[in-house]
Amino acid sequence: MGGPKKEETPPGGGPTSLFILTEDNPIRKYTRFIIEWPPFEYTVLLTIIANCVVLALEEHLPGSDKTVLAQKLEKTETYFLCIFCVEASLKILALGLVLHKHSYLRNIWNIMDFFVVVTGAMTIFAEANIDVDLRMLRSFRVLRPLKLVSRIPSLQVVLKSIIKAMAPLLQIGLLVLFAIVIFAIIGLEFYSGTLHKTCYSLEDPNKPVKEGESETPCNSDKEADKSGGAYVCNYNTSMCLEKWDGPNSGITSFDNIGFAMLTVFQCITMEGWTAILYWTNDALGSQFNWIYFVPLIVIGSFFMLNLVLGVLSGEFSNERNRVERRMEFQKCRFRAMFQTAMVSYLDWITQAEEVILAEERTTEEEKMHIMEARKRNAAKSKKLKSLGKSKSTDTEEEEAEEDYGDDEEGGEKGEEGYLKTRSKPQGSCAGFWRAEKRFRFWIRSTVKTQWFYWFVIVLVFLNTVCVAVEHYGQPQYLSDFLYYAEYVFLGLFMSEMFIKMYALGPRIYFESSFNRFDCVVISGSIFEVIWSEVKGGSFGLSVLRALRLLRIFKVTKYWSSLRNLVISLLNSMRSIISLLFLLFLFILIFALLGMQLFGGQFNFTGGTPETNFNTFPIALLTVFQILTGEDWNEVMYQGIISQGGAKRGMIYSVYFIVLVLFGNYTLLNVFLAIAVDNLANAQELTAAEEEQVEEDKEKQLQELEKEMEALQADGVHVENGDSSAAATKAKSKKKEEEKKQEEEEVTEGPKPMLPYSSMFILSPTNPIRRGAHWVVNLRYFDFFIMVVISLSSIALAAEDPVRENSPRNKILNYFDYAFTGVFTIEMLLKIVDLGVILHPGSYLREFWNIMDAVVVICAAVSFGFDMSGSSAGQNLSTIKSLRVLRVLRPLKTIKRVPKLKAVFDCVVNSLKNVVNILIVYILFQFIFSVIGVQLFNGKFFYCTDESKHTAEECQ
């Protein structure tokens, strides 16, 4: 162990510790040495992990019973606490308690450690001396896994970025709380005491009559039948009485502000809010309840809780920018240092080489060595210049191969020199080594060809198809075929891997991320084949070969956005892994806390539910289910009922609220923030690449122009039609785009008539066309069409969908003729003014006009058949259903409201990125579905007769 080192500046602590121990005190010196000694740190870390394992091994039984293992494990509690006490005491002795800078309680992690130790000591003392329920005190033990965060630096970084986002998150939290309180107060006014009436049997007035699985709120008012929507009891068998606890044992209600706030919070999370809406409909009628619930969901859920994602995304991108700037600075500094060192080293080498070359005794072979070394140094310096530029995995691999090629394929002379100097052949082996070297070069050039790449891709695709066709109850010949195909494909992929390794060399092969991935997948497939032969069964690992389809993105020069998306996702893995560990720690702590609070408590008349906290694995799964937001409210109801119901157990709802808020809305939104950040990163990469391509094109054109000018100056006549035409084309395109943008921006003022003939008949001076142009461009023409669209939409909404031939529908049908007539006149006027399709700016050259035309023509065709009254119109339900396209009319408003059009254009533009993400998403969905088929096919059946064990027997 050595002894304490003498340090001039102590790393922590103040002038005295606990007002007693000075800096020179040997006790303080030794304690500081111990707390900084790495084995001590590792011992504490192992103790924390062991304590987590012990807490997880506990099994909670009903009625506070304990298993033999749990009783033994309880005895270890004292030992763990002693170790944590010793650690805290040593740190306090070394650093001091609280009064000076760098003392023990000035660090947030130490405060947490101290809190855990104190609550643990209180629990042990209370167990020995006081007879009380210690569950709350014992539950503080679950904070011990958080001590891991203070020991792992990468976790601290992620946690710090989340803590930095807490200030704006707190403001959003207060805003959400304010909204919850307002809606809870409104709920109190509307629904207080309304959910306590239900139907009771006339035979036994204390027995509620169930509608389906549970009771339903009812309305005892005689007017309820007329108001519509309220649930009325069957007065022959039951009566509506106000003595029911309410839905979910009275937990879901608006009886006081606490219950109302919990119910509103549940609605905001969008879990089970429809059930609450229908209960209020049953109690009061369905006419006006939507006025309360729809704004609650729109404001609370769609808007406010999504602000959390915005804040986290902003903080995460700021953190990323800070890290990138720091990395860029370090890279520049490293590059400068490396270049200076390299230049001085090369100068020294060159001087030494000049001296050696000048000497006459130097042999030709040694001179050849020096020349080769110079060539390689030149290649290395070239590579050094490109250091720091971000490269995708495919360019890395290609550059590595090119360097390899530069070293080994320097023309015929270089190759011969290389062979002479490197292989040093002796006797008969010389020819063999030369042939082997040439053979390897030939294989390497073959591996890099396009046909070899596509051959491997086709193999991967065929392998994927073979894996996907496996299904339950498949014929024997298909099983045999797939069995042998598995070996064939595995052999081919192994051959490809070994050929590439031989051609490129292991070092260059493993430099590419895709090659490393290939190697891992193939090794996993080999392991699975061996396992299924020896033990039987399958892991579903072979489907991971479908991930090799991602290699398509490697060479797609034409789909850069997709390639950049994949690269960004791969780059984000490091931050996602840290976050995953933090998420696991969070789930672990809440699972342990849930075991302390609810372990062995979920005992109901119907048995113990699937989601409970009795054992650690089930508790982990329950917490994970709550995090995803799926049926979290059902678990909360069970937790509250197990602790005494709505009267005594409501305090336990805090556990579930905190879990949903911190887990679902904070930690899981960090994943979304990372995804948004990566998408932005991918878009930046794509934009940068496109800019680079444009710049390169412009440079080429400029160089061509310069060459032409130089040649013309020399008096050489050159036909430079192509290049100048290309340059002028590019310029004219840009000008056209700019003009279009200007035209879109400047919308005010009358539009000029198009300088083309309309339908080959009407010239720009034709009076009919000029009249149509004047009408279409009238100031209030668009406003009038908007009014007609609105009236048409209202008429569509007012139709009776049940009784097709009702008087209301007949009247609305006449209105529909009028609206269709207006839209037809509008279309014809625009066609006369603009022309149909053949010239720029004509009617059908715009998406919105095409949609207008489709709606009008379909309506006119269906009216034509209706009016003719022919049997063809009656039978052709397809023609009749064309009238359904009338519902597209409200979309006509988008074109006429500029802000709506901007939002719509934004949505359409974002669809490009959505397509890329969908491709990756569908690939992962496919992989997991195939793994599911391999693991679970034919397993999801059950039999009511316990003596039958197979699906065939159970008939």
General shape: globular
CATH architecture of the domain at 26-157: Up-down Bundle
Rg, Cα atoms, Å: 39 Å
Question: How many H/I helices?
Answer: 36
**What composes the largest sheet?**
2 strands, antiparallel
Quaternary organization: single chain
Span between N and C termini? 74 Å
Beta strand count: 4
- CATH topology title of the domain at 26-157: Four Helix Bundle (Hemerythrin (Met), subunit A)
CATH homology group of the domain at 26-157? Voltage-gated potassium channels. Chain C
Protein name: Voltage-dependent L-type calcium channel subunit alpha
Biased composition (Acidic residues): 395-410
Domain Ion transport: 38-322, 450-685, 779-943
InterPro entries: Ion_trans_dom (IPR005821), VDCC_alpha-1_subunit (IPR050599), VDCC_L_a1su (IPR005446), VDCCAlpha1 (IPR002077), Volt_channel_dom_sf (IPR027359)
Question: Which key features would you list for this structure?
Answer:
955 residues, two-stranded antiparallel sheet, Four Helix Bundle (Hemerythrin (Met), subunit A), mainly alpha, 36 helices
